[in-house]
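Structure request: NADH dehydrogenase, FAD-containing subunit, Pseudonocardia thermophila.
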Amino acid sequence: MNHRIVVLGAGYSGVLAAGRLARRLADVEIVLVNAEPDFVERVRLHQLAAGQDLPARPLRAMFAGTGVDVRQARVTALDVARKVVVLQDGEPVEYDTLIYALGSTLADHGVPGVAEHAHHVASRPAALRLRSRLQDLPAGRTVLVVGGGLTGIESATEIAEARPDLRVALVTDREPGDRLGARARRHLDAVLNRLHITVHPHTQVTAVDAFGVSTAGGGRIPADVTVWTVGFATYPIAAASGLQVDGDGRIVVDASQRSVSHPDVYAIGDAAATAAVGGETMRMACAAGVPMAQRVADVVAARLTGREIATPPLRFYAQCISLGRRSGILQLVTPDDRVLPIAVVGAVGARMKELVCRGAMWAITHPTMLMPVRRRRVALAEQASPVAS
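Returned structure:
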């Protein structure tokens, strides 16, 4: 029987890892498990919510002819002792090597009312629900976006540009874009002013209800629609399985993306606690998930074929932010993700952001065409013992 590699999750990191492995290995079985039939372009979900259409990307069509077996199913549990993935309403899937790429979801941070009353853009169904709500919203009503990070900024500016008849506000416990450099922050402030977005900085939201939010100190900010963008959280499956996780539920891995507690399991993307240059854990971002996917495919292929493994430190290059369709920011950063004084802003920044998104999408839709490398056979020792280093 061929060595079976199971990839859980078909986001950016899962799809890239599966495709790269199919390109490198000749005699393995690769199974890609995902809850939805399509690849979801998550970095554009704020655009979908604002009324723009995104093309369907069926996973089975993307992987047709590659040898990757795409299975649409929701993962409910992971039995790492028996090396079995438990699926909802489906046959369990056994694995020799597991690549865990289930990503992340909405983080409510324990704030009451978020689940019941707030919209979000952490998934395609959620973005479509917000889209429907915004389409039904009469002119003059208020949309309040909670969170001053990249997702909050992109959501607020996209909605404000698409619906100038609405009153859009942004509330954050710090300054919007406080991790940007001075040039980028000046441009962001100018765009927020141009789009007439009201900013409530240094304001802590303590509860959400159907009519807005409550803030620390007893304040109120009224809203007809509240959009919650205050970070992401991992799914509880990894922690419940017995895999070693950090305080955020991310799987603790070594320099090769391999679980430190279960060597036949690898983790990538938002689900992995991966150290970058300088030793800090990489933030949840497409910019982190893509190099993790490339690394894990190379590492697994090297281990299975008995070749040398190279694990240079992962690094960051830039932060890309869209500010509606007319403007954007490309903020250059150091390898350990500290901002540099260099930023491309405005229309050129928007084009750079679009180029990055389209480049990532091309890689996703051509999963086995990125590297014309030789496909190698699995070593016999690894066929019998997939955990060997």
